[in-house]
Structures are given as structure tokens and as C-alpha cells.
Amino acid sequence: MDVAGVVEAVARMVMPREPGHGWDHVERVRALSRIIAEELGGGVDTEVLDIAAILHDVGRALSPENHAEASARFAERLLRALGYPEDRIGRVVEAIRSHSFSSGRRPRSIEAAILSDADKLDALGAVGIARVFMYSGAHGRGIEESIRHFYEKILKLPSLMLTKPGRRMAEERVRIVKLFLEELEKELRDLSRGSRGSLGGGDAPGAEAR
Ligand SMILES: [Fe+2]
Q1: pTM (2 decimals)?
Q2: Over pLDDT 90: what percentage of the chain?
Q3: Residue 176 belongs to a domain with what CATH number?
């Protein structure tokens, strides 16, 4: 088994069962990382990128406040134990450390930039919408709070993209999110108007359908 295979086997055991950040998220981030790297064509250490993608959220089970740092430290210890070359350990650790939205660090390598973009892309589009509500369901967050999260975090992600393919995919995916939010907010607006006494009037919810 190659190093990535061993790392994957370990990560599968350690990954938190957290909805939205579990192993399925990792698999999507790996696939998105591969797509971006292929589109960039060359200059990317694809093994470093894959290992960083596999381990980027492993620290969520270890430290919920600073999961990027916890994941980076876990990766460093694991890769050193596996005898992985020091310079490549450094690249994996740097990519993991700087991938997080809240870390405030700017990725300094191409692998770090790709991982950061891939992770953010998985928070956009239809999958991103599904993940927001999975998280909300698990944490007792209602629809209004979820909408706030879209405005405070999700809609800002396209402006944080670092690679050209990442930017393009983010623009495509954010359109789905905006359409969804428009419709969700319209439905809620119509209902609150209805509950203020206009039910039965021309603009009552579902009036067109009847
Ligand atoms: Fe992630």
C-alpha cells in the first residue's frame, strides 16, 4: 500500500461522524482537488495534494475550535511515523494549516491554494446547500439562522478563490445558492404577508396554483 493508501485507512477511522464534514466531504474535496490540479496542468505535487485533502478535516474530532491546526499537527506526526520525506511533510502541513475559512492565513503553495478552493467549492452549489441544512439540523439551527449563515459565509466564498478553475466553478455554484435563497426568502415573505391578514387575497401563497 502506498503512503496515501495508509493515510486514507487511518483517516477513515479517525474522521468525525459529524454531518457535513465526514468522510463523504473528504472524498468530494479530493475529487475537486484533482479536477483543479488537472485543469491547471503541471506544477502540482498531486500526492502531497491528495494526502492534504485526506487529512484536512481530521482534526475536527480532536479540536473543534482550531481544526486546521489540529489536522496539521496530526498529519505531521502520522507522516513522520510513516517515514515520508520531510520537505513533502512541510507542504502537506502548510496546505492543511491554511485551508480553513477562519484561519486567516493565505495559502503559500499551489497545493495549499487548490485545497483551499476545493474545500470552499464543497460549501457551494446544491451540495453546499445540503451541507448547510445537515449542519443546521444537527445543531438545532432554524431556517432564519441558516439563511444568515449563507450571507455571512457561503456567499463570500467565491471572492476567496485562489485558482482560475476554482473561481470559475465557484461562480457556477454560487448561482445555484443565490437562486435557492431567492426562492426560500420569497416563500417566507409570502407566508408572513399572508399571516398578517392577506390570506385569501390575490397574493396568498399558492394562489396561482389553485
Ligand atoms: Fe473541509
Answers
A1: 0.88
A2: 72
A3: 1.10.3210.50
